[in-house]
Amino acid sequence: MPIIGIDYEKCNDCNICLTVCPRLFSRDKEQDKIVFNDPQNGCNLDGRCIAMCPSDAILHEDLGEVLSFKAAQNPSTLIPYETMHKFMSAKRSIRGFKNKKVPRAVIEQVLNSMKYAPTGANIRTLECTIISDKAIIKKLSDSVIDALIATNSPNYAEGAKKAREIGFDTIFYSAPHVMIIHSTNPNDSMNSTIALTYGMLSAQSLGLGTCWIGLAHGVLAASKEVREKIAGIKGKVWGVITIGYPAQKFFRVPPRPSLKIKGLDELD
Ligand SMILES: Cc1cc2nc3c(=O)[nH]c(=O)nc-3n(C[C@H](O)[C@H](O)[C@H](O)COP(=O)(O)O)c2cc1C
User: Fold this and answer.
1) Domains of the chain by range and CATH?
2) 36 CB less than 6 Å from ligand 1?
3) pTM of the model
4) What pLDDT, on the 0 to 100 scale, is given for residue 154?
5) CB within 8 A of 94, min separation 6: which ones?
6) Quick check: CB of 88 below 6 Å from ligand 1?
């Protein structure tokens, strides 16, 4: 049980933990203090009690690092809307990469951001496979193109086949790394999309470019052979992106249609 109790030397009896998680914490009337109830698997380990205790009095173990920085209380002070909006709107799918590997420490920064993505019921079952071997990326790309040809997908197959003949990779665009998110949990589809989106935004902040590769996702999800024998993955594949240093520049943000929205008129 990673949440293990209350440090009474720090506890100021404010009741916040009780309101955050009435399963783990309750008030003992006789002792007139908050007590910790081991809920036996009733805790989803999202750590809100740790994060919301003003006096850092929740005892825990094996949960990993707790970050403590002033802006955690008010994240909007870190990035103003205008900056965030520009950052997000300038995020492009990158389809050309420098012939340069991303250092492990930088990839680790991206992965470190991905771990803060929310997951349903805080169930943390996602796994990530990073393929950086050119020969394996080529094999994967070939299997995607072969699958497109086999399914006679007219939009892509012909072009991809012709491009392959002249050594141009229209699946991964010669990216130095392909990141595949997968798991054995059948409910991880949405979780993985959010995690990869966190990763892509984090990557952009580090000067990296990324692109979703739905074509490879489709083939990896459908073919056990490609998944296990080429990518070395067991379980379900939920998403695929490329990652590397961009060799493409965008001078402006292209226009995008607005979402179709209902309910705005009801707002002031
Ligand atoms: C789910 C998904 C799958 C995608 N699959 C591919 C793909 O297989 N190959 C590719 O080149 N781009 C792929 N893209 C990128 C889209 O084409 C791109 O996001 C869209 O054209 C908008 O361009 P932007 O990302 O530069 O704004 C995919 C994007 C998403 C969200």
Assistant:
1) 3-70 (3.30.70.20), 85-244 (3.40.109.10)
2) no
3) 0.95
4) 74
5) 173, 209, 210, 211, 242, 244, 246, 248
6) no
